[in-house]
Amino acid sequence: MNISRDLEKIGIFPKEELRIEEKNRIARDVTEKLCSNLKELYDCYNELYMRLFNCDMYYADVHEKFGDVFYYYKNNTIYIDSKKDISNIDSYMIHETIHYLQNFSKINKDKESNRAGICQFMEFKLFGLGINEAIVQYITAKALGNKIHRINNEAITIATNSENYYKYMTSLVGQILLLIGEKEAIESCLNSTENFENKLYNTFEENTDKIVKNFDLILEENNKNDRDESKIIEIYMQTQELIYTTYFTKMCKRLTTIKEVDTEVEKLENYSNIVGRLLETTIEEDKFKNFKKDMESKFLKKYIEINKNQSRNSLTIVYKNFINNLWNKIISFFQSKIIKN
After folding, report:
1. What is the pLDDT of residues 7-28, one digit of tens each?
2. 59 contacts: CB under 8 Å, gap ≥ 6
3. Whole-angstrom Cα distance, residue 297 to residue 315?
4. Rounded to an integer, what distance in angstroms lies between the CA atom of residue 52 and that of residue 23?
5. pLDDT band at 123, cuts 50/70/90?
6. C-alpha angle 74/105/23, rounded to 5°?
7. Average pLDDT of 65-74?
8. Which residues contact 284 (CB under 8 A, 6 or more apart)?
9. What is the residue extent of each domain of the chain?
């Protein structure tokens, strides 16, 4: 395999390797941002720092389509444009170093080598390329301190923490992670495990493949030179509907305690704050608002049902305790009579 020729074909022309102190600075600064802004990584500083410090890094002429940082998986190396100020730890730098961390397992013989983060390389297809990119960028934006906020264009309003890169995919990832938590997503993304994939399937079941496939479709369209944003928005809205209808419908059926109902009601309310909406949609046509109203009614019925069952059980217990106490008193009375006689 001629790595240099492969790199030149895609527009990467390597130069000199970074000096030790330069690698140290990048490894330190990237790790500090990751561990300071993602609570799941607070205790991972030493491990992440050493993994990044061991990365091969070279200066290069990097084609503008890659920004100014490019990770090449075939030789597990990061190429940084010669004109880049390496003290500026920006989105490109963090995103590409995360890709390196994902692929780090390939040189760790104790781990499987058919995964890179969430993405799985199967015999005839890839699984999760789009959602992997989305989670990498979501983590990147969090590492830079970006919060989820609402942005609009002439067609749609969405909430994302990454306005300039993969905004639709990070918006959808933000919705998924609000519902199922970030822990498994971050761990699987950086360490190439199956935990997040398993949680997706346990949560969204038969709709998981469709949701994951839609991320791939958005990524594919997003990377085209003549990208069709209306097509991306259409897929985005379809995916969003799959996410919230599948999750809340299934969760409602599983609720058994008042605390669980309260948790899901709060999630539904929080979800409504980050849901994407087409700007010209009327209230009557707003699918999410109609769904939310229906779910609120179902949650209320579930609350009443659980409360009634708990009250009935409480009365039963009180009655049983009363009978037991009465019986014990009767026994004690007769025992005292026998003793006196």
Report:
1. 999 999 999 999 999 999 999 9
2. 14, 15, 16, 17, 18, 79, 80, 81, 82
3. 27
4. 8
5. low
6. 70
7. 93
8. none
9. 1-112, 114-307
